[in-house]
Amino acid sequence: MMLPGRQDSHGSAAVSGNLPMDGKAVLLVHPAWHSCGSHQVFVSQARAYRSLGARVISLAIADSPGAVEGSGAHKTYAAATRDLEADARLYSGMPVLSVLNPAFLGAAKLWLHGNFAKILLESAKLAPIPAALRAEPRIDLIHCNHFFCMPVAMRLKQRHGCAILLDTHDLQARQYALRNEAGWTLPPPANFEDMLAVELAAMRDADVLLHLNDEEAASFKVLLPAMRHELLYPAVPAVAAGQGGADLIIVASANYANFLGVLWFLEKVLPLAPGVGVKIVGNIDGAFRTRAPALLKRHAALFKGRVADLDAVYANAAAILLPTTEGHGISIKTIEAMSSGAPLIATPHAFRGMNLDPAQLKNVTLAADARSFAAALLRADAERGGAQIDQGASDTRRTYQERFSFEAYRSALVKIAAPLVRG
Questions:
Q1: With respect to CATH, is domain 25-235+405-420 assigned 3.40.630.30?
Q2: Can you name one GO molecular function term for this protein (predicted)?
């Protein structure tokens, strides 16, 4: 399916022959995820390559048996990701009968012990290449996301002889180990070292590794010293910067690290700031419904669920709260909050992997423990509704534009990708 109106980063129509990747075909391979930070990275990738003149094909790989092209999972994914604009959007996943594959059965046994690395890799191996992609006469560059999508990327590299850029999206074995700390597994739980070995083996087939944050880049340079590494901060869509409003907000999706942060806020911070009204926006309520239903019931009035207009939520914020206590890799929701220009109350961990000192940002209040976070919350509560400011001129908005805007991402990406495109 062709999409009309390819545009450059300033929104004007691209002129054929004047762009560095004009006439080239770029394949984006990525998990079929939505409503998360990784999806926003995929959106920016597609937009950047198209603005550089390339024809972009998006191939979403599902990570559960039976989530094949035309399935309910496919339809749900497509409906939730209309913001991913590509010249062709394709989808694949392993057929349900592929669970009988001996390699998958072996991975499933490891999965029962919490080895997510192995089962995700085997699931991708069993996802067929869509017919429309098999018919493509030429792919000039493959931009793969997450190590477990590499089996799909490698099949297409062998067919087209092009380079693979692999976006690592953090060291995934860390995330799996964190998940296993609280999740159910058969004993003994999969250990970090075993999952890391699976991850690194899949990554070695890439031509260049792209890393989203400083911490991630430093780790992989030690683990894979013979490979080429590039630091490429993600482009996160900006929310509108306005004059601010009266709400104290937390915006969070339902991942485990976010759950732990909001849990800490509700159990440790909020009791020290009685009577302060806070709005918790996003599908994080689903994580509490599963993991802490009693706490959700006690604070039901605070949870607002997913909202249609997130810009309006940010625009009416007196302050944005970032009670981040766990997690690895760069925080997409922190970058999104920075783009709003609103005052932030945050733990230092919210700014991990960014190579900046948030204490130097005038509209950021750092709070390393519950008592200082509550004190900052009480001050923000007392001051809300006061003098409005131009949030577009704030320190966090300026830092966002310099590091995490689409223009910054596009400029860095073309320097890495264009020389790799097949001539």
A1: no
A2: glycosyltransferase activity
